[in-house]
Amino acid sequence: MYVAVKGGERAIENAHAWLDDARRGDRDVPDLMLDQIREQLTLAVDRVMAEGALYDPDLAALALKQARGDVIEAVFLIRAFRTTLPRFGTSEPVDTGAMQIIRRISATYKDAPGGQVLGPTFDYTHRLLDFSLAQSPDIAAAPEAEISTSSVPHILSHLDAEGLMQRENAGGGPDVPDLTRAPLEFPADRSLRLQALTRGDEGFLLSLAYSTQRGYGRNHAFVGELRIGHVRVSAFLPELGFEIEFAEIMITECESVNQFQGSKTEPAQFTRGYGLVFGQSERKAISMALVDRALRARELGEDMAGAPAQDEEFVLSHCDNIQSSGFLEHIKLPHYVDFQAELELIRKLRRSAMSEAAE
Fold it and tell me: What pLDDT digit, counting tens, does each position of 25-39 carry?
């Protein structure tokens, strides 16, 4: 037994060394530096920060390099590091109305108040490989980005002013449960659901959101507004008696508009689905907004069609890619005893069946 343990230990050390060698790749190719990952693979960095629940582009770039580009492994590294950090307090809610906007679009109003800002997007590109990117072009100055520094009100606020949007309790404060410090329990209120969704796997949420558009939940939504930009983060310091700003981060926010035909107590009106994530991650934010709205079906007294996206326990228990991959990948580990037990059972059943057939 001792020999087996030592042998396994040596094999693991060799596997780690091989991994390091595979990560580096061809030594004739320059090593990939963290600033290159941070500045040129920004959408991957943003996804790692969002699902890792830690806003730090440098650490996200490091995690991507260490994980050889495996996003889920990089998220795992960030989550693990996050658990080692001290917690000094809680920040105040960010004011997305005061966002320094780099992208802002609406699918509900052509002439949106405040204007549409296309920003950096793949939406209008031809999906053709650009072979010029395979070359090393001369470094040229990029055009100056136009960032809106004035407050731009949310588009849905205009519907709200007409009384056409459902009134919602913003919540907030110390009573909001913290998913990172307490286990997920059901039923979960909306604030807890949103925390789980914003850390959830983008691919999983995309599939669920798509399912609602195809009829599994009857969730036909419009993008009331999608905005991407920088917001200031502040915290209230009791010893000083006022707030101080300590950071500026990029976020993506999406508000979807859904029709609600009303009930005995509520008039016909529009309801909202909400998504907010770190960085530029509009596909994730839109998916989150659609799933958030689907999960409100019971609250709004709508028909529960048994759609996966309407099942709170199904969505929240499976959207976390770290838990999902951990449980999935554990089946690679030794299960020798379990398998031998099942193997012996199958042999016994076959012998019994053959004996009965012979009789």
Answer: 889 888 899 999 999
